[in-house]
Amino acid sequence: MNGDVFFDSNILLYLMSPNSVKSDQAEDLIAGRGVINVQVLNEFANVATRKFGADLPKVRNMLSTIREVCTVRPLDIQTHDLGLEIAERYKFSVYDSMLVAAALKAGCTTFYTEDLQHDQKIGGLTIRNPFR
Questions:
Q1: 39 neighbors 99 (Cβ within 8 angstroms)
Q2: Measuring CA to CA, how many Å separate 131 from each of 23, 25, 103, 115?
Q3: Residue 70: which CATH number?
Q4: Backbone angles phi, psi at 24, to 5 degrees
Q5: Residue 29 · residue 37 · CB < 8 Å
Q6: Percent of the chain having pLDDT more than 70?
Q7: In this predicted structure, what is the pLDDT of residue 1?
Q8: Is the Cα dihedral 132, 13, 92, 86 positive or negative?
Q9: Distance CA 120, CA 9 (A)
Q10: What mean pLDDT is predicted for residues 95-112?
Q11: Which of 32, 89, 92, 120 could form a disulfide with 97 if both were Cys (CB 3.0 to 4.6 A apart)?
Q12: Could you list the residue range(s) of the whole structural domain that residue 37 is in?
C-alpha cells in the first residue's frame, strides 16, 4: 500500500481497540502507509478523548505516530465544494462526503471505512470495509 489508500478515522481508532483482531488488522493496514487529512486527525482526537477516555498526551503521541506513517493532506475549499457535491449526489453525511472528496483529490483508489457501502465506486475510488 501507499498513497493510493485513504483511511477514515474509524479505521485508525481501532489502534485503541480492545478487540485484538481488529486492532492488529488496523495496524497492518496503516503500516502499509496511506493518506489522511486534517479532518481525520480531528475526528480521531475527538473520539479518542470522548469515547475512549484517552488523555491528550496519549492522543498526541498516537497522532504523532499516525502522522509519521501517513501522508496528511490539508483541508481546502475545493475539497469542501466537492464534498458538498458528493453529499448531494450520493446522500452521504457531509463528514463522510468530505473524506471521500479528500480521497479523490489525493488521487487515492481505495477508501477504507466502516461507514459506507463496501465495494461502492465513486469515480476512480473504491470504498472498502477492511474488517468485512
A1: yes
A2: 10, 8, 20, 12
A3: 3.40.50.1010
A4: -65, -40
A5: no
A6: 98
A7: 47
A8: negative
A9: 19
A10: 97
A11: 92
A12: 5-128
What's the burial of 127, exposed, middle or buried (CB within 10 Å: 0-12/13-18/19+)? buried
Are 91 and 84 in contact by the 8 Å Cβ rule? The answer is no
Cell numbers representing residue 92 in the block: 452521504
Q: 116 vs 10, 55, 57, 112, CA distance in Å? A: 11, 29, 31, 9
Got the DSSP string for 19-40?
-HHHHHHHHHHHHT-EEEEHHH
Q: Cα–Cα distance between 44 and 71 in angstroms, integer? A: 15
Mean pLDDT of all residues in 66-73: 96
At residue 85, what is the residue type? E
Q: pLDDT tens digit string along 2-28?
A: 569 999 999 999 999 888 899 999 999
